[in-house]
Amino acid sequence: AQTVTQSQPEMSVQEAETVTLSCTYDTSENNYYLFWYKQPPSRQMILVIRQEAYKQQNATENRFSVNFQKAAKSFSLKISDSQLGDTAMYFCAFMSAYTGTASKLTFGTGTRLQVTL
Amino acid sequence: ETGVTQTPRHLVMGMTNKKSLKCEQHLGHNAMYWYKQSAKKPLELMFVYSLEERVENNSVPSRFSPECPNSSHLFLHLHTLQPEDSALYLCASSQDRLAYEQYFGPGTRLTVT
Would you say residue A87 has pLDDT above 80? Predict the structure, then answer.
């Protein structure tokens, strides 16, 4: 079974600064997807960024980028130029490419990010 | 309405009550999911439906009963719940059961007294 670990329960960053959220995972599979989801205080979870394990290039979406280290099973999220609207819970998630009957997301426990003035 | 909607947003019920949570997706998706989100725990997948057929049941107690009458609607029927069932219940949908991107609703905050 896969596990996802987020070791930082809470983090704080000043507006316009850069912050990195950590995520490690454990799997015996070679082909899978990794995700970062954001859940603002209003609670609607939205996808921030995804990474396919077979791609060596790190995914980037505007101010959000990842550092994917497959051998180390590490998948960190970097937020550049932090904005107040980035305040949220951030969840790292894993999905096997071998989905069987249905796609299953395995989530970490989340990191609460507070962006301050 | 757009995306995935859930009603009610908040629900307080006693242990002997029967209630239902409703989820509706307006995205034309074929797969729908129920998750349980408890404080300081990872989201737990409860049920998966694909084309109105249940394809996954992650050892959820029988006091939770899902229903998917069509690909746009998903219900979670609740009866004789326990206080430890208090949590945020999230609904999600995806294009099909193999799609890697899931779209979430805002959740129903359930309190069992």
Answer: yes
